[in-house]
Amino acid sequence: MVSSSHEAMHRIFQEDPGIFARTFAALGIPFPEPIAVSLLPTDLTEIQPLERRVDSLLQIDTASGVSYLLAVEAQGKRDPDKPGNWAYYLAHLYAKYRLAPVLLVTCQDRATARWAAEPVIIGVAGWETLTVRPLVLGPHNVPAITDPAVAAADIPLATFSVITHGRDPNAAAILKALATALKTIDEDTAQIFAELTELGLGTAPAADLWRDLMTVDLDFFRSQTSQRIREEGREQGREEGRAEAQAAAIFEVLTLRGIKVSDRGRRRIADCSEFDLLHQWFRRSLTATTEDDVFSDGDEHSGRL
Q1: DSSP label at 43?
Q2: What superkingdom does the record give (predicted)?
Q3: What CATH number is attached to the domain comprising 37?
Q4: Within a domain: residue 42?
């Protein structure tokens, strides 16, 4: 089962693909800042019944006219099958799109990062047919951002810093810097990155501290629309108000992320009175690419259409 931490480690690049260029520029590997980014299908399945799916796939267009593909893989541990899969991904992507593919592997521990950075050499002695050279981001090279001012200057990178260093014993300073920085941006965007941070931390001990920090600042992360609906809900009943506020939050996130919702989907969200289910849809809305992604995983048994 794919963990929430795994999802956040690659989906952060969908929220702000510029993290990729900015981070490696600081490491002395220059990539031009993107001027346009297209989210591409992640399904690399062939006609044969063998499914191969990259975590995130982006087409990066730059001002110089150069375009390339960025395939992002979130790797939680060593996996002997992955090097072969990565070689397949890159060859398939080049054959399909005729664009240079770049493989980025994100890790949350140093041992996995060291393993992932090793070149994958395919061939026989004396003749290397194919060499795969992943770029790797992990605790060894992602900056630990502990200054709130630095975090505020680049919220996506600060979020990625928190996720990457979430298992660090000194993660508290990084989390506090991000929590402070989120107060400097608009509430809708702050809500997205706050939720993405919680997903990325997963079961790490730092996740409890992050939830505590967000509880203290809960009022800040409520938009004016959500506050108004919550106030109306108190008059009609606390539970109903919570459900309406959560529905409003779902609509706000989907609108902010440019995801179209059908009339049927809007009725389904608006008519739902179960706060837990609405919260589940809200979390999915943060990473969904289509309306169907929000309602996936067997919600049909609940009977809301």
Answers
A1: B
A2: Bacteria
A3: 3.40.1350
A4: yes
Same domain (yes/no): 212, 229: no
Whether residues 13 and 106 share a domain: the answer is: yes
Secondary element (H or E) of residue 38: strand 34-39
Per the CB < 8 A criterion, the answer to whether 192 and 253 are in contact is: yes
d(CA 222, CA 197): 17
Q: Looking at the 3D structure of the chain, how many domains does it have?
A: 3
The last residue of a domain, from among 73, 102, 137:
137
Tell whether the torsion through CA atoms of 144, 147, 150 and 156 is positive or negative: positive
| Res 208: pLDDT | 85
Q: Which two tokens stand for residue 243?
A: 């459900």
For residue range 170-191, what is the model confidence (pLDDT) as tens digits?
A: 789 999 999 999 988 888 788 8
73 membership: H or E segment, kind and range: strand 67-74
196-248 pLDDT, tens digit each: 888 888 877 788 888 888 876 555 544 444 455 445 544 555 566 667 777 88
CB 86 within 8 A of CB 132: yes
Helix or strand run (H / E) with residue 131: strand 127-132
| Rounded (10°) CA dihedral 266, 269, 273, 275 | -150
Residue entry with tokens 């992640």: 42
Per-residue confidence at 278, pLDDT binned at 50, 70, 90?
confident
- Bridge partners (DSSP) of residue 105 are 73, 136
Q: Give the whole-angstrom CA distance, residue 198 versus residue 212.
A: 11
Query: Is the domain of 210 the same as that of 236?
Result: no
- Which residues have C-beta within 8 Å of that of residue 35, sequence separation ≥ 6? 61, 62, 63
Largest CA distance in the chain: 77
Residue 151 pLDDT:
93
Are both 95 and 8 inside the same structural domain?
yes
The answer to whether the predicted template modeling score (pTM) of the entire model surpasses 0.70 is no
Residue 209 sits in which domain range? 148-221
Given this model, what pLDDT does residue 21 score? 82
